TrEMBL record:
<feature type="binding site">
    <location>
        <begin position="128"/>
        <end position="130"/>
    </location>
    <ligand>
        <name>FMN</name>
    </ligand>
</feature>
<comment type="similarity">
    <text>Belongs to the chorismate synthase family.</text>
</comment>
<comment type="function">
    <text>This reaction introduces a second double bond into the aromatic ring system.</text>
</comment>
<keyword id="KW-0456">Lyase</keyword>
<comment type="pathway">
    <text>Metabolic intermediate biosynthesis; chorismate biosynthesis; chorismate from D-erythrose 4-phosphate and phosphoenolpyruvate: step 7/7.</text>
</comment>
<feature type="binding site">
    <location>
        <position position="298"/>
    </location>
    <ligand>
        <name>FMN</name>
    </ligand>
</feature>
<feature type="binding site">
    <location>
        <position position="46"/>
    </location>
    <ligand>
        <name>NADP(+)</name>
    </ligand>
</feature>
<comment type="subunit">
    <text>Homotetramer.</text>
</comment>
<dbReference type="InterPro" id="IPR020541">
    <property type="entry name" value="Chorismate_synthase_CS"/>
</dbReference>
<keyword id="KW-0288">FMN</keyword>
<keyword id="KW-0521">NADP</keyword>
<dbReference type="GO" id="GO:0005829">
    <property type="term" value="C:cytosol"/>
</dbReference>
<keyword id="KW-0274">FAD</keyword>
<keyword id="KW-0028">Amino-acid biosynthesis</keyword>
<dbReference type="InterPro" id="IPR000453">
    <property type="entry name" value="Chorismate_synth"/>
</dbReference>
<dbReference type="GO" id="GO:0004107">
    <property type="term" value="F:chorismate synthase activity"/>
</dbReference>
<feature type="binding site">
    <location>
        <position position="340"/>
    </location>
    <ligand>
        <name>FMN</name>
    </ligand>
</feature>
């Protein structure tokens, strides 16, 4: 069974991940994982923290001579900001001459986390609720990406809109709609969008929000190519591929909406405009001229690209804070607290979305094809394709 756990506080010494269930003999390159971590740190609208961190993994177990051993893999990402926080993290607030954090930020985990865990210093909540944790997912996803590439599967993302500036939800995306050229342009764009004019508009929107002491959300899209027919199943609710993709995307902090394929658009028209007709090609392969289903039918991948669009709410920490409550006094206050923060993270969230889709596909692929070594998994996969 493929599974992973992540641990680590945002301002602690490091993030740690334990990954179990990847087959033995898989070549894994640190540089491929580090490149994903760098992409997650990018995008226009990030705050001061990203100037401090230089995320990169260290393998602490499970990999020898560049190949997986089949034993649990431990990954570590150092928090370079730790040196600036060590005293505050180790000493009680009074000793460190720090006021405990008590004014909760609307939209963050400050209120719910403090009540649930009984913390009177909200800092104890912020440490783990922080999206610093998403670096861990990207690191795990970077390993999964390398497994998937053995099966010809690749996962990409791009930004569709920021605070309403950008594309309306597109319909029926087919493989042809996404070219190599487009993905190159996405990687080079500060907003991870292939449209240069739109990039300018998005940046202007983020700057405007920043000037107003405000923040932006938006929509990103994740696409997986090369997924074989047959991952996931309708046989139990929690094993449907759509269920697992939904959970994976909704697990990203600040994600509040997602749709697969044409999603909500399908609810505004009729069946004859929605369902993807099945064709048999001369070479015996299957095809769907459209992909409104986003590559999943009956909870099972249908061989078309998996297309997922994801809605990210605006960042909760506002430079012009909203009214709130001070948990220490119980009094209503005019302004909650501001601390160093991002203004927009839609491009970064897209990279996290890629990692989450890579993780879900890895889990479903290993479930279908099994194998304790990569050779065995590939052999099972090839035999299935022949069948
Ligand atoms: C990559 C990334 C970076 C984020 N950076 C910040 C930030 O700097 N400040 C902030 O208030 N929220 C930030 N968030 C959003 C919060 O982590 C998130 O809103 C919070 O954990 C509450 O969870 P919820 O929005 O899912 O309810 C970030 C989210 C992501 C995905
Ligand atoms: C550290 C990351 O994002 C952080 C996520 C975050 C939050 O509240 O979610 C708040 C900020 O933390 P800090 O106060 O340390 O600057 C972000 O920088 C990261 O993405 O690696």
């Amino acid at each position: 069974m493929f599974r992973f756990l992540t641990a680590g506080e945002s301002h602690g010494p490091c993030l740690t991940m334990i990954v179990e269930g990847l087959p033995a003999g898989l070549e894994v390159e640190k540089e491929i994982v580090d490149a994903d971590l760098r992409r997650r740190q990018g995008g226009y609208g990030r705050g001061g923290r990203m100037k401090i961190e230089k995320d990169a993994i260290r393998f602490l177990s499970g990999v020898r001579h560049g190949k997986t051993l089949g034993s649990p893999i431990t990954l570590q990402v150092e928090n370079l900001d730790w040196v600036n926080w060590e005293e505050r993290m180790n000493a009680a607030p009074v000793e460190a001459e720090m006021e405990p954090v008590t004014r909760v930020r609307p939209g963050h985990a400050d209120f719910t986390g403090s009540v649930k865990y009984g913390h009177d210093d909200v800092r104890n909540v912020i440490e783990r609720s922080s999206s610093r944790e998403t670096a861990s997912r990207v690191a795990v996803g970077g390993l999964c990406r390398q497994l998937l590439s053995q099966f010809g599967i690749s996962v990409h993302s791009h930004v569709l809109s920021v605070a309403g500036v950008g594309y309306e939800t597109p319909r029926g995306m087919t493989k042809e709609a996404y070219s190599e050229e487009m993905w190159r342009a996405v990687e080079e764009s500060p907003m991870r969008t292939a449209d240069a004019a739109l990039t300018e508009k998005m940046i202007a929107r983020i700057l405007e929000a920043k000037r107003d002491g405000d923040t932006c959300g938006g929509v990103f899209e994740v696409v997986a190519f090369g997924v074989p027919i047959g991952l996931g199943t309708f046989s139990q609710w929690d094993r449907r591929l759509s269920t697992r993709v939904g959970m994976a995307m909704m697990s990203i902090p600040s994600v509040k909406a997602m749709e697969i394929g044409a999603g909500f658009e399908t609810t505004r028209t009729t069946g004859s405009h929605v369902h993807d007709v099945l064709r048999r090609e001369e070479d015996g392969s299957w095809s769907h001229p459209t992909n409104n289903a986003g590559g999943i039918e009956g909870g099972i991948s249908n061989g078309e690209p998996i297309v997922v669009r994801v809605g990210v709410k605006p960042i909760p920490t506002l430079a012009h804070p909203l009214p709130s409550v001070d948990l220490a006094t119980g009094e209503n206050i005019d302004q909650s607290r501001y601390e160093r923060s991002d203004v927009c993270v839609v491009p970064a969230a897209g990279v996290v979305g890629e990692a989450m889709l890579a993780i879900v596909l890895t889990e479903a692929l290993l479930e279908k094809f099994g194998g304790d070594s990569i050779e065995e998994t590939l052999r099972n996969y090839r035999s299935y394709l022949q069948q």
